[in-house]
């Protein structure tokens, strides 16, 4: 197990206060944050496109870290992690495996969002016994309909955000009605306003573009056999996800035996963030079973 910290240190249960640590694997210095009580199977968080450690919603992380050891990390070339972003989802999954094993874990639970969910599926395809429980949110399967169109939509919404001096996630993750706009502002404030010191390095533009290329390849790739995902799986999304179409959540639910599906009304790609008060306890309960 990870011997990075003493057993006697106080348990940190707030993501905003979690210190940033580093572990080296395959020549990459991976940065990560951990919180919650140590021991048992950790919950590893897989983050979305263009996101660093600072992009996780503390309302969701903290709800899970109340009872579980939570680890969030930056993939290779993302934020303060060293190296270059790989151009395939499978290579990102190999990096994730290197990171997890470098910390000394051979069994984990996974909480993933968007690109993170794609990486998690590729990880399980290669290492089916590594993951005990799986949470897939705002994501889709390999070869899923219209996943290869994510890049075009992302660039369009970034332009809209630039013109209105907004955070791109307000356009990409939320509906542009009054409810969506309110939820977007609140979410951006939670992820950018809470942690003022020890923030992560920004996502490099080159790495962001490489991630988009990897998503396009994944969208055009040969589908995974999702019947091989035998771990208990919770799938969640909004009913109007423009980035990774909501129908793909239903598709995964049909193909992953025994999976549970939650679709939130009047919400987009960031449905779990808009409905964080409902979703956080659902996710925590699922992961604690």
UniProtKB/TrEMBL annotation:
Coiled coil regions in record: none
TM spans (from-to): none
Superkingdom of source: Bacteria
InterPro entries, per the entry: AB_hydrolase (IPR050471), AB_hydrolase_1 (IPR000073), AB_hydrolase_fold (IPR029058)
Protein's UniProt keywords contain Hydrolase: yes
Alphabetical list of Pfam families matching this protein: Abhydrolase_1 (PF00561)
GO molecular function terms attached to this record: hydrolase activity
Domain AB hydrolase-1: 43-273
Keyword annotations of the record: Hydrolase
Annotated protein name in UniProt: Alpha/beta hydrolase
Organism: Glycomyces niveus
Taxonomic classification: Bacteria, Bacillati, Actinomycetota, Actinomycetes, Glycomycetales
């Amino acid at each position: 197990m990870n011997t990075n910290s003493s057993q006697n240190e106080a348990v940190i249960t707030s993501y905003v206060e979690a210190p940033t640590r580093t572990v080296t694997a395959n020549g990459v210095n991976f940065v990560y944050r951990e919180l919650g009580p140590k021991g048992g199977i950790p919950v590893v968080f897989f983050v979305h496109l263009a996101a660093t450690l600072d992009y996780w919603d503390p309302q969701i992380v903290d709800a899970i870290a109340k009872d579980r050891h939570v680890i969030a990390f930056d993939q290779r070339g993302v934020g303060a992690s060293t190296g270059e972003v790989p151009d395939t989802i499978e290579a990102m999954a190999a990096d994730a495996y290197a990171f997890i094993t470098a910390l000394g874990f051979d069994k984990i639970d996974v909480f993933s969002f968007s690109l993170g969910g794609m990486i998690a599926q590729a990880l399980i395809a290669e290492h089916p016994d590594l993951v005990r429980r799986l949470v897939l949110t705002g994501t889709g399967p390999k070869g899923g309909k219209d996943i290869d169109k994510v890049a075009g939509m992302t660039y369009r919404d970034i332009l809209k955000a630039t013109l209105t001096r907004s955070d791109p996630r307000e356009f990409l993750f939320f509906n542009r009605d009054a409810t969506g706009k309110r939820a977007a502002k609140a979410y951006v404030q939670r992820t950018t306003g809470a942690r003022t010191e020890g923030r992560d390095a920004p996502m490099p533009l080159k790495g962001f573009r490489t991630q988009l290329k990897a998503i396009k390849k994944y969208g055009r790739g040969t589908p995974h056999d999702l019947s091989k995902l035998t771990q208990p799986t919770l799938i969640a999304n909004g009913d109007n996800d423009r980035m990774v179409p909501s129908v793909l959540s239903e598709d995964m639910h049909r193909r992953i035996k025994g999976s549970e599906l939650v679709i939130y009304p009047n919400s987009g790609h960031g449905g779990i963030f808009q409905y964080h008060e409902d979703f956080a306890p659902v996710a925590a309960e699922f992961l604690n079973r």
